[in-house]
Amino acid sequence: MRKALILLALTALTPPLVAKADTAQHPQAEEQALTLAEKAIALRSVAGPGNQTPQVAALFRSTLIAGGFQAKDITITPFGDTAYMTARWPGSDPSLKPVVISGHMDVVEAKPADWQRDPFKPVVENGYLFGRGATDMKLDAALVIASLIELKREGYTPRRDIILALSGDEETAMETGKILADKLSNADLVLNGDVGVGILDEKTGKPDYYSWEGAEKTYADFRMTVTNPGGHSSEPRADNAIDRLAAALLRIQKYQFRPELNALSKSYFTSAAQFQPAKIATAMRNFAANPASQSAIATLSADPALIGKIGTTCVVTMINGGHALNALPQSATANINCRIFPGHPRSAIMAELEKAAADPDVHFSDVTQGSVETEASPMRPDFTQAVEKAMHGIHPGLPVFPGMTSGASDSMWFRNHHVPSYSISPVFLKPSENFSHGLNERTPVAAIGPAIDFYLSLLPDLSH
C-alpha cells in the first residue's frame, strides 16, 4: 500500500522532476524514508514543555537497529528537555578518520490554528508531504537513515567509520550541536543534511541547478543602549534617549559593509547567473569579476535573496524604550542582528557599527548566544568530485557548484574545530515552495527516490 502511495505521488507531479524516479530504484528504502518521516513529523519536537525530541531519537534508534545497526553503537544522550544522538557504523580500517553525517531532530514551533493542516499530523496530498519538518529537516534525516540501511542491505562495508550525529536544539540554543562537534572533532569531514540548494524551475518543475554549501555567515546580536536622567514629559529637552537611539539606528540603516567575495561565493555568482533574469545575471557576473562594482552592488543589494551573499548585513530587530507615558525616557535599547561574512570576528563588526552610529553615548555590547565565527571549508577535490558524480547520477549534466548560506547550522561548530563541513541536502524545491520555518511546510514526495540514489553514491565514495 505504501509503495502504491509513493508511485501515485510521483505521477501526480510534473514529469521532468522525476525523470529517473518514475520507477523506484530502491523501493524498500523509499517506502521506509517516507514512513519514517511521517512518524517523526508526528512527534512534536519543539523546545519547551512537552518536547518530544527524545522520542524522535528513540524512533530513529529503533529503526537503525531493525536495519542491522548494533544497539551498542547507538547512543541517545538526554540534555535538558531535549537529547542528542550518535549512531556509528564501524569501518574496516580504524586508523582512518570517520565521516560524520550531521543533522538535527528538533523543529521550530508551529501553531495548528495558523496552518491549513495540523503541522504535527503528517499527510501526503497532491504529491507533497505536509507537516512541520517535511523540509527542515525530518525528511532529510529519514532519507539518510533509509540510505544507510539500504547500504547495509546491499552488503556495503565502509573502510572508515560513518557516524550519524543528530542534535536536539539546532533551532534554538544549538548547545547539543556544539557538544557533538567537540566529541567528533577528529572527523575527516562532515556532511550536513540540514542545508543544500536543489532548485527547480518555477514554470517547468525541471531541476535548474544544485548548490552544495561550504560556508555560512556568522550569527551575531549586538545591543545598543542609551541612558538618560529622564524627567517630566511636560519639560522636553534636546537630549532624549529614544531620539538619540533612533538617530543612530537611521545612520546604521544607511551604512553598507564592504561587499566581498570568497572562492565559494564567487563560484556561486558565476555559475548561478545563467538562471537569473538578465539584469540580475549581469550584476552577478560583474560582481564576481569585480566586487567593487557599484552598479552590481546596487542591483544585488536591492534583492533580499542576494544582498546577504555579497557581504555582512546588519538590521535592527527589536527596540525598547521609556518607562512611563508621561516621563522622558531614562533608557532606550535596540538589538542589531548581523550575519557576518566568513573571516571577520564579531568584535570587528561591532566596532564598525559603533563608528557608523557616530554617537559616543550609544553604548554597544555583544549579546550573541550560541554562535561562533568560522572560516569557509576548503573545496576538497575528493568531496567535490563525489558530490558531482552523485548528483549527475540522478540528474545528468545538471550544473553543480558551491555556495554559502546566510543562516546558521551545526556546521559552524565543526568548522570551529577546523573540520571541513559541507551542506548537501539533495532535496529539490521550487523557491516559491520553500516553507521552512513557515506555514504549511511541505516537500514533494518525488524528491525521495533521487535523494536516496544520491546518498547511495556519495556515502560509499567518501567512506571507502
TrEMBL record:
Signal peptide: 1-19
Classification via SUPFAM superfamilies: Bacterial exopeptidase dimerisation domain (SSF55031), Zn-dependent exopeptidases (SSF53187)
All copies of domain Peptidase M20 dimerisation, residue ranges: 215-360
Keywords associated with the record: Hydrolase, Metal-binding, Protease, Signal, Zinc
Pfam families named among the record's database cross-references: M20_dimer, Peptidase_M20
UniProt xrefs under NCBIfam families: PRK09133.1
PANTHER family hit by this protein: N-FATTY-ACYL-AMINO ACID SYNTHASE/HYDROLASE PM20D1 (PTHR45962), N-FATTY-ACYL-AMINO ACID SYNTHASE_HYDROLASE PM20D1 (PTHR45962:SF1)
Family: Belongs to the peptidase M20A family.
Name of the featured protein: M20/M25/M40 family metallo-hydrolase
